[in-house]
Amino acid sequence: MRRNLSSFLSDGAFLALFLLSFLTIVYIGGDPDQYLRNIIFLNVAFLIAIITYFTNVTTGLIINILFLFGYGTFTLYRTAVTGGVVELQTYFWLIMTPIYTLTTWLLTYANKAIQAENARLKKATVSLATMDEHTNLKNIRSFQKDATIFMALSKRYQIPLTLVVANVKYWDEIKQMISEDQMTEAIFDVSSLSQTTIRTNDSLYMLNSNNPTWGMLLFTDREGANIVIDRLRDKVEDLNMQDYAGRFSVELDLRIGAVEYDETAIESPLDFISQARKQLEYDV
């Protein structure tokens, strides 16, 4: 509701500026004898509006008060001393200049409200997102939720649970040799390979998308996880031989580590990841 109101105010203020500009053009064009004078006042009105846009409405109104006071004083002086008459154009600029300022402030206010709402929504999206944007795999937030449940099931029903963690060797160096699009494609390809190596009741996660790190929660013991690891290595090797050498002129190699869940040694999902990552150090 608040976003719709801000959008309505922004659109209304934008259209109002067009309408005010049209009315001003018609007014200036209708009195060629005062063309230069009206152009000067128009520039003053726009200048105050621009200052309001980059500052705030208080500053704009203060400048408008000074303008009205100065212009009103000058008009009274000319009327009293020279015997001049108060013309229509005097009232026109006394009214239009503050209207320009208020319309500009309204546009600025509405746009800032929309920007703040967009920033809030983006922040909420990032904090609530459970999928990696490049691979559509579950991210580390999903892992923490799922691992908590899987660890509880493993503990209650004595079902073996193993976390397999894999990342790409020399990824920082590889990034220097291939483009960002190719990196994304490479991550997606390896993710697809990982998905084909596990069963439907196991889960695959993208734990870190900057330095691609995958996690696989497997309902099996450490020996059973070795079968998945060997299968994954074979698929990556086949991919290197058939595809990557021609496409990217680089070969991908994985470091893989695994740890079986032990309720006495692993207290949380993050601890589970930490201990699995330590096993990567032995895969050189």
Automatic annotation (TrEMBL):
Keywords on record: Membrane, Nucleotidyltransferase, Transferase, Transmembrane, Transmembrane helix
Pfam (any one): GGDEF
Organism: Paenibacillus gansuensis
GO molecular function: diguanylate cyclase activity
Keyword Membrane (UniProt): yes
Listed EC numbers: 2.7.7.65
Protein name: Diguanylate cyclase domain-containing protein
Record-linked InterPro entries: GGDEF_dom (IPR000160), Nucleotide_cyclase (IPR029787), Rev_trsase/Diguanyl_cyclase (IPR043128)
EC class (word): transferase
Domain GGDEF: 129-280
Source species, domain of life: Bacteria
TM stretches of this protein: 12-29, 35-54, 61-79, 91-110
